[in-house]
Each structure stands twice: as structure tokens, then as C-alpha cells.
Amino acid sequence: MLKSLTKKIQSCTFFKLNYLSDDIAKPLFQKKNNFKLSKFKMFNLYSFGKKNPKKIFYVIKRTPGAGLFSNVIYVLNHILIARKHGFIPFVDFQNFNTIYNEKKKIGSYNSWEYYFKQLSNYKIKDIYNSKKVIITNNNFTFDNEYYHKIQNTNICDIADDSLKIKKIYIKEAQNFSKKYFKGKILGIHYRGTSYKTSANHPFPATKKQIIFACNKLMEKYKYDKIFLCTEDLSIFNTLVNEFKNKIICLKDSYRSYSDDAFKIYPRKKHRYRLGKEILVESLLLSKCDGFLYASSNVSEFIKYLNFKKKKKYFKLNNGTNSANEYLAKWLWHLKNFFPKILFGFDEKIKIQ
To answer: What is the DSSP letter of 17?
Structure first.
């Protein structure tokens, strides 16, 4: 469908917003006072046809995108922009593929609709036959003041109103928790693999550190079980060997020794399942009595799910990787190799 849309874009009436004068922009957007053209200089306004002449559609795209909750927070921020200016938001991860898109239909060709309900009742074919359609850029570099984390009150309000998780995943998490969450549960989200080499990201805990943290929390707060969520197979095996039958997990979730989840295709519906697994795991982590984590978009989403609930949060503070992308590829491994006295990691990791 993208090829046909590309041809349509090439043949349609097209305006780059940074070339529009205020005299032209105001009637197009029907905003005489509070529409600031400069804020949208990186967006494109298209006229695909004559439908819906009094409406302005706001197509949110992000290709190839990033992790599921990075995409979610990105979409929520764009909904905030659309609401502020009276646009009608629509997530198009069909013509503009993300890393989760499958070639075959999963109820939809739009990967947003694999997991969440669409933002409006308008059909995609109607939008691309409409008179005024804004198509977003892929990022927020044009104006960082618009980007907020999910803990922002405005974003929380948008999420409450617009982020509708498909009921099938909510039900799956409910059934799992009823069956396996017996007693007091410590939830753990451990990001390994790519986080070990990602510039300007929190350092993941080492094997010794994560065992130390788990033992400390299990003893202090009397947790009976650990619900473990990690893509890092090495850490997964380490914790299973250490805590044995105290570990609860989604057995089929994809785990690997390397950062290859989106580089290979080892199972049927693999990319769809990657998104589904982290969504269900996040719903389950939100049901745990305590949550051990390093900062990530997943932890931000779990905090949102528990925005008005009581839960103990334990943040692993292992420092932050270098902003230099070349040094960042080696720094975690070097700090893991050397002892603390030689600037290595402290085995007794800080828990905030």
C-alpha cells in the first residue's frame, strides 16, 4: 500500500508548512490566533481529495520506530499536539512500517492496531482522500518543548482517554496473575543486550549485582516469588539457576544472548509476538507488589499503570554509559571486568 500512497502523495496538492505564509496558513487550519506556524515547520500538509473539507487529519507516523513503549510515548505526545490544535489524530503504522510490522495481516496491516484501538473511527482510505491531511515527521527534534515523558500530567490524561489496550491482552495478564501470582511478588524488568552498549543509557546490572539486589529485597520485604521479565538470556538463566522455583515468567517470551530480536525471524509472527510479549509482561509487572528496574520506557509505562496505586519501586543505579557511541560499545564490559578499585562496578549496587 505504501507504493500506491507514495504515488498519491507525489501527485496530490502539497504544501511544505515552512514555506506557507500566515495568510495562506490561517484559512487552511481555521486558526486565527493560537496556531503558531513555526512550531510545525517540519510537518507536511497534503490535500488528497475533496472529502471532509472542514476537518484536518493528523497522521502520526514513525518509521522504523523503536521499542513498543517508545512508540507509545511518541504517539501520546503527538496526540497532545493534535488535541491542542483541533486536529483529528490517526496512527498510520501501515503505510509507514515500524519494526513490529508483519508481512501478513494480524487482524490489521497497521501494527498500532495489533495492540491498541485506533484513535478515531475514520478509515484510512477516507483520510487519504481528504482535503487537509498533516503527516508528521519521524521525531521531535523540531521542537523539544513538545516532548514529555508519560509521567507528565497532560500525557497521563491523554493516555487515560486515548490509549486503549486490546482486551485480549488484558485478559491474558489477568488469567496469568490469578494462576501464578500467589503470595508477595517482586517484579523485575531487566534490560540487557543492547543496553550494555547503548550510548547515554543506564548501565544494566551485572550478574553479581542483580543477584545481590534480589536477595536483599527478598529478605527485607519478604517477597515469595519473582516475576522476571528480560530479553537477556544470560541473565535469565543466571536468575533461574539462583532462585529456581521462585521464578515466574512467560515461558515463550523471546530471549537471546545478543541484541538480535529484530535482526532475525526465528518463529511464526515473531515481530508481532515481540510487541505482544512486552505488553503482557508490562501488565503483569504492574500487578506485582514491588518493582525492580533500571530506567526505560517500559518502567515509565508501568509507573503510569500504577499512577494512583501503592507499589514499592526499586531503581537500580549503576551509572550511565558514555555519550560517545564508540566508547559506549566497550565501557560496560570493561567496568564488568575490572574491580571497583579500578573503576569497575560495585557488586553491592545502589538501589533507590
So the answer is: G
In sequence order, which residues have a C-beta less than 8 Å from that of residue 58 and are 6 or more positions away? 78, 81, 82, 87, 88, 89, 90, 134, 136
Q: Determine the structural domain holding residue 13 and report its residue range.
A: 2-162
CATH of the domain at 280: 3.40.50.11350
Residue 245 neighbours by CB distance under 10 Å: 7
* 3-state secondary structure (DSSP) of residue 97: coil
Query: pTM of this prediction?
Result: 0.88
Alpha carbons within 13 A on the beta-carbon side of 142: 15
- What gap in Å lies between CA 235 and CA 190, rounded to an integer? 8
3: pLDDT confidence band, cut at 50, 70 and 90? Answer: low
Q: Cβ contacts of residue 22 below 8 Å, gap of 6+? A: 37
Residues 87, 214: one domain?
Answer: no
- Give the pLDDT confidence of 163-176 residue by residue, as tens digits: 999 999 999 999 99
Q: In angstroms, rounded to a whole number, what is the distance separating the alpha carbons of residues 134 and 44?
A: 6
pLDDT tens digits, 122-170: 999 999 999 999 988 877 644 455 567 777 778 889 999 999 999 999 9
> How does DSSP classify residue 140?
S
The CA–CA distances, whole Å, from 130 to 140, 162, 201, 263, 282 equal 25, 23, 42, 37, 37
